[in-house]
Write a structure and sequence with these properties.
495 residues, 19 helices, mainly alpha, globular
């Protein structure tokens, strides 16, 4: 595939993925507002306590094969069929494990209801196994149009059903239905829309070839999921379900902001990284452009959310969720680093360094668990959150160091590249906080004032200083703007 062709597909991929992500974000945003008024922190807490078990099981099913199929330049029908049947068999085994261990997990948390919830929610494992090959084929072919349309429609249908169930008092079961529908609808659509069908073949040679790369990706993903969810396990064990609910709402809101753009980029960039894996210079240049573009948008967003957290939560979710605000503000600091994680992580995976990634992921997660547990023991919930922040920034440094070593984009250079954006965001935040402290306004007016002051300062800095990150951002959005204008002009001509 030529470089121009890759660029064209990348632009289209980003456009469709952006449409998907922001449409889904809007749906999740509306969903969060409505469901926060229909459900309680206890309901969210129950689901949050089980997420670690579900995500770990899903990591087992993928087993790194999804990444291996994308990383392999020309996977065969035998490769796809082997992965398909392996996933189905493994999902049956894992569901049996979850089903039998559900009562023990419920006793661990001291909430009997969780046993039935986990047994029903575990059905997702079969759906996920059934669907993974089709999704990865679409990603490998950069067919993000179908992925985007299906994701948006799925979100709308799942949200509608969830709201109806929550309104009629189904509580935590409304959230269970949402998770199942979000997995089931794409699986059915992709089965009929993607022409691929498995052959009745299972090749151990193909399995070993994919597993040689995928095994370490699997272990890496497993460690990442455990590292991301360990705080939920600890909060659920040592605090109430309501506290877990406050944390879950804060965490989901922060992640919605910090990863909204990076998830768009990561769906497109990993296949592109894989195509460019033999050209380290071009790969390093792409990482730099994506990193600066992401930081230019995400850094100011996280500071704005940190400053306006209280009016934001009360306006969106009501006074019931005010206890989530301190958790959210601390998590926003972690979000600065978390927003850039996938850029470096995926580039190292794309060049085939899966074993190296596993080794360093193991180091990151062990240190991360130590930081989180130590924080919990020293200062309770606040200490646990501080441990999460330190863990996130430490993980980010390891990722950029790996890129420095294997791709050539120096870790110091990367830090220096993002420093202007970070410093500008910090100065804007300090000025905004000072203005807010000087003025005595109502809760919502204070939030609007802070939002306005920050945006004015940041935009003025961008226009007058024109930092490199701002220039990359303009280059990135220009094709999308032209495409939108072109469609508008076509519409006017038809009229």
């Amino acid at each position: 595939m030529s470089e121009n062709s890759l660029k064209q597909k990348a632009v289209k991929g980003v456009a469709w993925t952006a449409l998907q992500r922001y449409s889904t974000m809007l749906i999740q945003f509306v969903s969060g507002i409505i469901l926060a008024r229909l459900l309680t922190p206890y309901d969210y807490g129950c689901i949050g306590m089980l997420m670690i078990f579900m995500l770990l099981a899903e990591s087992f099913i993928d087993g790194g094969f999804g990444s291996a199929l994308i990383q392999k330049k020309q996977p065969t029908q035998t490769d796809y069929s082997t992965v398909f049947f392996w996933n189905l068999g493994l999902s049956a085994v894992l569901y049996a494990v979850l089903y039998l261990s559900a009562p023990a997990i419920a006793r661990f948390y001291g909430i009997p209801l969780l046993s039935d919830v986990l047994r029903v929610q575990g059905i997702i494992l079969f759906i996920y196994a059934f669907n993974i090959v089709q999704q990865n084929q679409l990603r490998k072919k950069l067919n993000f149009k179908l992925l985007s349309v299906v994701t948006i429609m799925t979100s709308l249908i799942a949200l509608s059903v969830t709201i109806i169930m929550a309104y009629h008092g189904y509580g935590v079961w409304a959230l269970v239905a949402q998770y199942i529908l979000t997995a089931l609808i794409p699986a059915l659509v992709f089965w009929f829309c993607v022409r691929w069908r498995p052959q009745w073949v299972f090749s151990w040679q193909s399995f070993r070839e994919l597993f040689s790369f995928g095994f370490y990706m699997f272990l890496t993903n497993l460690l990442n999921q455990f590292g991301h969810q360990i705080q939920g396990l600890l909060i659920g064990r040592f605090y109430s379900a309501s506290t877990m609910g406050y944390y879950s709402k804060a965490n989901s809101t922060e992640r919605l902001a910090s990863t909204s753009i990076s998830k768009i980029m990561s769906q497109v960039t990993y296949p592109l990284y894989a195509e460019m894996q033999d050209n380290k210079t071009a790969l390093g240049d792409m990482i730099k452009k994506i990193t600066l573009t992401l930081s230019y948008v995400t850094f100011p967003l996280m500071f704005i959310l940190l400053l306006c957290a209280k009016p934001l939560f009360i306006f969106l979710y009501s006074e019931r969720w005010a206890d989530s605000v301190p958790y959210f503000q601390v998590l926003c600091v972690a979000g600065l680093a978390y927003s850039l994680q996938s850029v470096n992580y995926q580039s190292v995976a794309a060049i085939g360094k899966s074993r190296t990634m596993f080794v360093w992921t193991f180091v990151k997660r062990v240190i991360g668990i130590v930081l989180v547990v130590a924080g919990l023991l020293l200062d309770g919930m606040r200490g646990l959150l501080v441990g999460m922040v330190l863990n996130t920034w430490f993980s980010y440094y390891i990722n950029i160091w790996l890129v420095s070593k294997y791709i050539g984009y120096s870790w110091l250079r990367q830090l220096l590249d993002i420093m202007p954006v970070l410093l500008a965001s910090l100065v804007a935040a300090a000025m905004t906080y000072a203005v807010g402290a000087f003025c005595s306004l109502s809760l919502y007016m204070d939030g609007l004032l802070k939002l306005g002051v920050f945006i004015v300062f940041y935009v003025a800095w961008s226009v007058f200083v024109r930092p490199e990150a701002y220039q990359y951002f303009c280059v990135a959005v220009k094709p999308l703007i032209k495409k939108i204008k072109g469609k508008k002009n076509k519409g006017k001509k038809k009229l």
